[in-house]
Amino acid sequence: MSEIKLVATARTEFGKGAARRTRRAGQIPAVLYGHGGDPLHVSLPGHQTMLSLKRANALFSIEFDGEQHLAIAKDIQRDPVKDVIEHIDLLLVTRGEKVSVEVLVRVTGEPFPGTIHFVEMQRIALEAEATNLPSSIEVSIEGLVAGTQIRVGDLVLPEGTTLEESPEGIVVTIAEPQSSAADEAADAETAANQAAASAAAAEAAPAED
What domains does the chain contain, in order, with CATH numbers? Predict the structure, then answer.
């Protein structure tokens, strides 16, 4: 996995007001922690960091105070209304070290015609090398028939990873679409309205000589 290089600056002010000033300056408040050392409170370049975080389980090489630090994002706090990043917790890692991460499930293919699929687990917990973290796990549903269930234990894991989930967990289910009572009632109401409209139109039509 290629490293994403960021240059961090020291953060000496704390609290909500200081965080707002940092974000107004185009930066994101962050903390680097791990390996028993004191946390490093830093600011990261806002636009570059936001673009980098679009890559799942990205590995960062952060330059700070003349040193390079490898890290991965462990917690990203976002404003629920503006959807902007307010703060990032970054875990310091070393080459060869294994860490726990959640990996996105990516469904490919189409099930048997007339069926639909439900993704029961959006993410899978894995242990993997910190410098070689997978971004997703591919699950093929091509041609699967109704009643099929893909479990965690059926997944083909990326090389060098181990599961941190029960193998019995259901990831994807294939089923036949079923209409609900509300759908049936809505269909019946639509049919009744159409019939009433047709009858009204027939009554309003002028009689033929």
Answer: 4-93 (2.40.240.10), 100-175 (2.170.120.20)
